[in-house]
Write a structure and sequence with these properties.
Helices cover about 35% and strands about 20% of the residues. With about 100 residues, it is an alpha/beta fold. Strands 3-2-1-4 form a 4-stranded parallel beta sheet, covered by helices on one side. The chain is globular. Bound molecules: nicotinamide-adenine-dinucleotide.
Length: about 100
């Protein structure tokens, strides 16, 4: 099975990817992440060379990027999100874009 995980460089997504790779030997995972202030590629540094894993830097609000990332994918798990409450007060627009339109 091939999965697209979005926001895989964040807290929940990176733990989810580690969990899947350790539990399911035959799984293949594409991680689409915009690498905002919240995304940290170091969360997944240890699996960078795992042949079952690939990373695409991209935005879930970009239909072309999502469409390309979805090639051959059986299911999508969306963790890509603006999550910092303080930032939602200062700059609500990016929250509406990602959490509503992107999703
Ligand atoms: N952390 C928790 O305890 C918790 C609990 C319940 C639910 N959740 C939900 O799980 C989801 C992920 O939470 P988290 O704590 O991992 O967040 P996080 O802020 O740690 O990670 C979010 C990830 O999404 C990426 N991202 C942001 N905007 C993007 C975009 N437009 N396109 C692609 N990637 C984008 C960021 O780069 C980052 O890697 C959220 O929907 C959150 O509400 C989190």
């Amino acid at each position: 099975m091939k999965l697209l995980v979005t926001g895989g460089c964040g807290f929940i997504g990176s733990n989810f990817i580690h969990y899947l790779l350790s539990k399911y030997p035959d799984i293949s995972i594409v991680n689409l992440d915009k690498l905002t202030y919240a995304g940290n590629p170091e969360n997944l540094a240890d699996i960078k060379k795992d042949k079952r894993y690939s990373f695409i830097k991209g935005d879930i609000c970009d239909p072309g990027a999502v469409s390309r990332a979805m090639e051959g994918v059986d299911a999508v798990i969306n963790f890509a999100a603006e999550t910092h409450v303080d930032r939602s007060i200062v700059s609500a627009g990016s929250f509406i874009n990602t959490d509503v339109y992107g999703t």
